[in-house]
Write a structure and sequence with these properties.
This protein is mostly helical. About 80% of the residues lie in helices and about 0% in strands.
């Protein structure tokens, strides 16, 4: 059950990171509230996941999901560049997250 919680925490991390852009420095109330809710949900799910997962692994996977998701949505939603190098390094993060899941699945 910890891995699905961690995955959910990572998705909410993506939501609050992207929400920072749309909140415009916390000057827009609706995106600001959505960002805050996503941040709290991300932390709660992460806190529950680390009750049974090693903190180093969980934190690395959480930030990896957040980095990949945020970078991907930056490309898709915010017209950020999708260069070959950028996509290759995003893939490196994915490989790391999957690798940590595989070597930690015994916990």
């Amino acid at each position: 059950m910890s891995w699905p919680l961690l995955f959910g925490a990572g998705l909410f991390e993506v939501a609050w990171a992207i929400g920072l852009h749309y909140s415009d420095g916390f000057s827009k109330p609706v995106p600001t509230v959505g960002t805050a809710i996503a941040l709290v949900l991300s932390m709660v799910l992460l806190a529950n996941a680390v009750q049974t997962l090693p903190i180093g692994t969980a934190y690395a996977v959480w930030t990896g999901i957040g980095a990949v998701g945020t970078a991907t949505l930056g490309i898709v939603l915010l017209d950020e560049p999708a260069t070959v190098a950028r996509l290759a390094f995003i893939c490196c993060i994915v490989v790391g997250v999957v690798g940590l899941n595989v070597v930690s699945s015994g916990h």
